[in-house]
Design goal:
Layout lengths: L4 H9 L23 H10 L18 H5 L8 E4 L2 E5 L4 E7 L2 E5 L5 H14 L7 E5 L5 H4 L2 H8 L2 E5 H10 L14 E3 L4 E4 L2 E7 L8 E9 L2 E7 L10 H21 L3 E3 L3 H4 L1 H10 L11 H26 L2
Helix pairs in contact: 1-7, 2-11, 8-11
């Protein structure tokens, strides 16, 4: 795994290291006196998109993230492409890829009750057998993504993949929120550049440190009207209240994924919270206009723009936080 050992200890606790403040790391009128050239760059980049808003830009305004997720509280399970499915509520997402040898599940929501309702119940509503879940990739060590993992391990014997630093991070911070289920047992260790394969599908993993010590992003091949198209999945998008080392690591992975994406040409971007990829809204669009172009496939140019906006918003939040730390 290509992680810098010198950062390891600091990374394990960084997501909880900075106390929450209403305006900390937030582009607001209260921070207007702080020069914010990266915010200007992020806006200029986002406004090139032919849309009334651009979802990645919300990372420059992180306090608005959770309220935005609640606009569509429960979109219900949805078929997004021929073999790709949304399972979750309007706040937290899990995704399923139906392969020739079973289902790859990405993330497991908060707890057993949510698994029963959204993952198991959702798959059944979509005509899929949840007993075919064989592989689970957990994007990072926050309980709203691993909380149902142990239940699925015990129920179906599914293999779980997570990075070693985030296994540590998960176990250290387990129980911080009573909504979260217990941590899953340590199983497969996900590594940078690894391809997790099940049947006819291989998902390539990238460690994208920042949101947690070793969040996972992925290139997911899915079938859309019979054509294989790649989605870029970002497993740790928000970047408010990080340590300087974590902001630096975040900047490094956005640079790296820009280069990767320029080569791999993903056809769209998804994540694990609806405010950052507008999954709930896109699902509603598919239902309302099923014969229109699939809104999840916005093109490579848009995917690259998304990463450039994330990069600038991270740098902007880092500058605000640095200014606010000064006496």
């Amino acid at each position: 795994m290509n992680l810098r050992s010198a950062l390891h200890a600091a990374l394990l606790t960084s997501a909880f290291a900075i106390p929450a403040q209403n305006s900390f790391g937030q582009a607001t009128p209260e921070t207007a006196s702080i020069p914010q050239p990266h915010l200007a760059k992020a806006r200029a980049e986002a406004f090139q998109d032919n849309n009334w808003k651009f979802p990645a830009l919300i990372t420059c305004y992180p306090n608005e993230g959770q309220p935005a997720e609640k606009v569509i509280k429960d979109p219900g399970p949805a078929k997004v492409a021929d073999n790709f499915y949304f399972l979750g509520d309007g706040i937290v997402a899990a995704w399923a890829v139906d392969t020739s040898d079973g289902i790859i599940l990405i993330d497991t929501l908060n707890n057993q009750a949510e698994v029963d309702k959204y993952i198991i119940g959702g798959l059944q509503k979509l005509g899929l057998d949840p007993a075919h879940i064989k592989t689970i990739i957990i994007s990072h060590g926050h309980g709203d993504h691993y909380g149902g993992g142990k239940y699925l391990q015990d129920k179906y014997g599914a293999k779980i993949y997570m990075t070693a630093p985030d296994y540590d991070f998960m176990e250290k911070n387990a129980g911080r929120n009573p909504v979260w289920g217990p941590p899953p047992r340590r199983d497969q260790v996900a590594t940078d550049g690894q391809t997790v394969t099940l049947g006819d599908t291989g998902i390539k993993l990238f460690i994208t440190t920042g949101h947690t010590p070793a969040s996972l992003s992925m290139l997911i091949p899915v079938k859309d009207k019979g054509q294989v198209r790649t989605l870029l999945y970002l497993g740790g998008i928000t970047n408010k209240g990080l340590t300087p080392a974590m902001h630096t690591a975040y900047d490094e992975w956005t640079t790296r994924l820009l280069k990767v994406s320029a080569t791999e040409k993903p056809a769209g971007v998804i994540g694990n919270h609806s405010s950052y990829d507008e999954a709930a809204t896109k699902i509603e669009k598919i239902r309302a206009k099923p014969n229109d172009d699939n809104p999840f496939f916005t093109g490579t140019a848009s995917a690259l723009r998304y990463l450039r906006v994330l990069k600038e918003c991270n740098l902007n939040n880092a500058e605000i936080e640095r200014a606010q730390r000064k006496p």
